[in-house]
């Protein structure tokens, strides 16, 4: 189920929807789009996910999501969004659970460290060979770009949650 993008909050000074705040919050009209999917495997908050391209029924291809992973069989290299959390009262992120996925906008996602070299602010990201993790997009591009990094990844940081701007590809 899609979220609405008809209303936008453009006031960066105060947030009238949240009492006592100064500045907008991530929940108030900042152009984030969220979709609900069915997890096809156990997921973590921050995992990059992709469609279930091996589903038998056409309607099921975009119903379920797996971790984006260029080493999987079948290969699932196109990251379409980032897991924000469970859409169930139990809070589970296991196979069969409903999960909320950021398909566009700002969120925290799992990002690698470019083989220990670190990644600069504003760098382009793409899915990697590690399940659920994005990393620095190589030149020339091997996989589609999925996001812009909105936070520096220090050298030798390993895989960490970092702020990204997800490209809408769905």
Strand and helix layout:
Layout: E1 33-39, E2 48-51, H1 58-61, E3 64-67, E4 81-86, E5 98-111, E6 124-127, E7 134-136, E8 145-149, E9 160-166
Parallel strand pairs: 1-3
Antiparallel strand pairs: 1-5, 2-3, 2-4, 4-5, 5-9, 6-7, 6-8, 8-9
Describe the structure in your own words.
The chain is an all-beta fold. It has a single domain (33-166), classed as Head decoration protein D (Virus Head Decoration Protein, Chain: A). It is built from one helix and nine strands. A five-stranded mixed barrel has the order 1-3-2-4-5. A hairpin with a 6-residue loop joins strand 6 and strand 7. The two termini are 13 Å apart.
Number of domains: 1
**Strand proportion:** 25-35%
- Kindly state the number of beta strands: 9
- Gyration radius, in Å: 16 Å
Principal-axis shape equals globular
For the termini, the CA-CA separation is 13 Å
Largest sheet: 5 strands, mixed, barrel
Label the CATH architecture.
Beta Barrel
Helix content: under 10%
**CATH-assigned homologous superfamily:** Head decoration protein D
The CATH class label is: Mainly Beta
What spatial order of strands do you see in the largest sheet? 1-3-2-4-5
Q: What string gives the helices and strands in order?
A: EEHEEEEEEE
CATH fold topology:
Virus Head Decoration Protein, Chain: A
Tell me, rounded to a whole number, the average pLDDT. Answer: 87
Total of helices: 1
Task: Give the low-confidence spans.
Answer: none
Q: What is the SS-derived class? A: mainly beta
């Amino acid at each position: 189920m899609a979220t609405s993008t008809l209303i936008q909050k453009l006031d960066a000074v105060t947030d009238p929807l949240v009492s006592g705040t100064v500045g907008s919050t991530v929940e108030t009209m900042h152009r984030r789009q969220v979709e609900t999917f069915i997890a096809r495997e156990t997921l973590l908050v921050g995992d990059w996910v992709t469609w279930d391209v091996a589903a038998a029924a056409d309607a099921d291809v975009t119903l379920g999501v797996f971790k984006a992973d260029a080493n999987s069989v079948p290969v699932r290299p196109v990251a379409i969004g980032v897991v924000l959390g469970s859409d169930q009262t139990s809070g589970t992120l296991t196979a069969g659970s409903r999960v909320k996925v950021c398909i566009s906008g700002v969120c925290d996602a799992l990002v690698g460290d470019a083989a220990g070299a670190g990644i600069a602010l504003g760098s382009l990201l793409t899915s990697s060979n590690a399940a659920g993790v994005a990393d620095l997009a190589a030149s020339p591009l091997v996989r589609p770009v999925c996001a812009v990094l909105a936070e520096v990844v220090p050298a030798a940081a390993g895989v960490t949650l970092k702020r990204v701007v997800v490209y809408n590809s769905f």
